[in-house]
Amino acid sequence: MPVSCSAYGCKNRRTILSKHRGITFHQFPKDPGLRKAWILAFRRLDFKPSNKTVLCSDHFTQADFDRTGQTVRLREGVIPSVFASFPNHLKRKRPIKTRSTKTSRRALEPIKDPVPAPKCSEPPKPAVSDHHYALDPTQLSDAQARIEELERQLRNAKDRERRQKQVLKSLLERLEERGMLSEAIEIELLQESVGVQV
């Protein structure tokens, strides 16, 4: 049975042609919170996806994909956001309500910084998001790449440590078999290894 995208008005199906065009299909997440966010992004009344329901890659931004391996995967926690086939009434954004209380209006006022910021020659780039605390998308992708690199380095360091411990353990066993390891040296080595682990 051919697999087709379940988004409103999307006609993409899993075929050889779609594979050559680079279209990938992704199942709904198993995490209940993320699954609910995907369903809300769909904007389909009473939509209940099954375990086999899929969404094509046309409904995600390029930053949502992890293309480091052989297979194209979605990054963790992404929500579909591109729905070109939606009718106009579903594309409209809801108007943002303005703050009504004195405290919430005061929260929007800029804070006077006692330490003046250094003046830069070029004006700051406007943020794409409507939140002043949000990261610029280029900074976000750089940060994600840096996190992935650090996680890879951490895995490699743990693997090296594990291999070194195995080598040390085998050396100690060989020394003990040959009778070249005294109790005093063994106790001292054990204390040092415990001190490193703490």
From TrEMBL:
<dbReference type="GO" id="GO:0008270">
    <property type="term" value="F:zinc ion binding"/>
</dbReference>
<dbReference type="InterPro" id="IPR038441">
    <property type="entry name" value="THAP_Znf_sf"/>
</dbReference>
<protein>
    <recommendedName>
        <fullName>THAP-type domain-containing protein</fullName>
    </recommendedName>
</protein>
<dbReference type="InterPro" id="IPR006612">
    <property type="entry name" value="THAP_Znf"/>
</dbReference>
<keyword id="KW-0862">Zinc</keyword>
<dbReference type="InterPro" id="IPR026521">
    <property type="entry name" value="THAP2"/>
</dbReference>
<keyword id="KW-0863">Zinc-finger</keyword>
<keyword id="KW-0238">DNA-binding</keyword>
<keyword id="KW-0479">Metal-binding</keyword>
<dbReference type="Pfam" id="PF05485">
    <property type="entry name" value="THAP"/>
</dbReference>
<feature type="coiled-coil region">
    <location>
        <begin position="140"/>
        <end position="178"/>
    </location>
</feature>
<keyword id="KW-0175">Coiled coil</keyword>
<feature type="domain" description="THAP-type">
    <location>
        <begin position="1"/>
        <end position="83"/>
    </location>
</feature>
<dbReference type="GO" id="GO:0003677">
    <property type="term" value="F:DNA binding"/>
</dbReference>
